[in-house]
């Protein structure tokens, strides 16, 4: 990763979640830990979160297409021309956009970020992407120490 954990957390994840009105400290920690965790490559996964083409399309079709304001804010994180040519490339080249899509994978449109129990986030992600839950939890614990001590 090109960023230190602190930089990624404070300059990518936190501002992205705030832009989307999804900020919660535990969600930010979870997304940072996921981005830093070694993941099994998903056969058609893209970028630091290894989001598949199907997952990406599902977020747009099931959550963003029905919420124009939110769709506009997520789309505003993407490159104007690249997104139109190949939206999946945004998952590779744009960490803020990838973080926005990853957040929506973790927090379905029907759930509020305030209502989520955060151990569920790691379980949900690890189930979707065949990632070791222990690795993500260890990364969260390490990040807590780095960021808040």
Automatic annotation (TrEMBL):
The identity of this protein, by name, is Transglycosylase SLT domain-containing protein
Ranked from the top, the taxonomy reads:
Bacteria, Pseudomonadati, Pseudomonadota, Gammaproteobacteria, Oceanospirillales
């Amino acid at each position: 990763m090109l960023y230190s954990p602190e930089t990624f957390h404070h300059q990518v994840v936190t501002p992205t979640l705030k832009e989307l009105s999804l900020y919660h400290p535990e969600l930010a920690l979870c997304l940072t830990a996921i981005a830093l965790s070694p993941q099994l490559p998903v056969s058609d996964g893209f970028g630091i979160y290894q989001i598949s083409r199907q997952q990406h399309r599902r977020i747009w079709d099931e959550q963003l297409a029905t919420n124009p304001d939110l769709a506009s804010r997520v789309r505003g994180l993407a490159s104007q021309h690249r997104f139109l040519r190949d939206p999946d490339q945004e998952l590779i080249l744009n960490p803020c956009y990838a973080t926005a899509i990853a957040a929506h994978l973790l927090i379905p449109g029907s759930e509020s970020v305030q209502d989520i129990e955060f151990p569920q986030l790691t379980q949900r992600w690890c189930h979707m992407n065949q990632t070791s839950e222990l690795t993500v939890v260890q990364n969260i614990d390490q990040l807590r120490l780095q960021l808040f001590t």
